[in-house]
């Protein structure tokens, strides 16, 4: 029986609806699958990011804990130094334990450790150094009062055995400004040099400079040279231990020890100073200066270590191919000018050579066991 017109129309509409429903279902199915995949990928990425964040957080926390532990160790080292030098003005007056506790601890236990301190009155610091570094340390002292000192040990000579508290202590009687005597009497007696040199002598700024420029070459690789009581460089006019001197914050570098040591920084950077910079030198042995630092009332200079890095290169190998900016070839003329000025300034030290201002310091000499 033939379909009526409205029935045919309804059937057509139903077919269209069915087709649309299939199409919608298909699209929704595809979307759901894609959404599921996207959600899974997003979740995986989120988990991965959370893991990375947690790892970073854990590393940061571990680093914080490590830093805290390092700080605890540093404070313990500072306290130990303070305890051993409780009778010395290095601690109760100047607070040098905050510096020495950090910088000297790494030398403890070093085989054949050798120390030179300029300035010894009653032997307090000599005995403290022995206690701090151990009885195997070789401790040399230059006394600033000569044989009139009332030293804490009976026989101030190396390897004394009759007095257990003496350890390996030796005393030189010397004027620290006598460069020739330092060479002939002190350096010649210690050809292997020292790991640590501490200038706690006359405190005259010019003497600090003279002693450093003579003794530095005999500081061992990785060694440390310390100048204490640099406060004297701020006095325009003063006297100390029988010496009358003039300095001041604006004084010429040889008369202000801190200004002179700032000049040595140029030596560290010599290989960056033009085509002839590698030969730039201010005094003998200055090519091994690796670091110069200024702490409260203290200057310290560290000598370069021997050895190679991971690339089998030594400290002296660097810098490798430093940049050459415009004007590179003009630098040599400025270096010549700087050396001329340095030489003229150095002449100011001549009046601080021995025996001109004080009878307190005798010629260098020493007593052997």
Protein model, in words:
40% of the residues lie in helices and 14% in strands. The protein is built from nine helices and ten strands. It has helices at 5-84, 89-92, 97-103, 124-133, 179-187, 205-215, 257-263, 265-268, 331-346; strands spanning 114-118, 138-143, 169-173, 194-199, 219-228, 238-240, 243-245, 289-295, 298-303, 365-366. The protein has an eight-stranded mixed β-sheet with strand order 8-9-5-4-1-2-3-10, sandwiched between helices. α1 crosses α3 and α6 packs parallel to α7 (257-263). The longest helix is centred in the N-terminal third of the chain and has 80 residues, at 5-84. The protein starts with a helix and ends with a strand. The model is unreliable at 158-162 and 356-369 (pLDDT under 50).
Tell me the strand percentage band.
5-15%
SS-derived structural category: alpha/beta
Strand elements, count? 10
Order of helices and strands: HHHEHEEHEHEEEHHEEHE
Unreliably modeled segments:
158-162, 356-369
Please give a quick description of this structure.
This protein is an alpha/beta fold and 369 residues long. It has helices spanning 5-84, 89-92, 97-103, 124-133, 179-187, 205-215, 257-263, 265-268, 331-346, and strands at 114-118, 138-143, 169-173, 194-199, 219-228, 238-240, 243-245, 289-295, 298-303, 365-366.
Secondary structure topology:
Blueprint: H1 5-84, H2 89-92, H3 97-103, E1 114-118, H4 124-133, E2 138-143, E3 169-173, H5 179-187, E4 194-199, H6 205-215, E5 219-228, E6 238-240, E7 243-245, H7 257-263, H8 265-268, E8 289-295, E9 298-303, H9 331-346, E10 365-366
Helix pairs in contact: 1-3, 5-6, 6-7
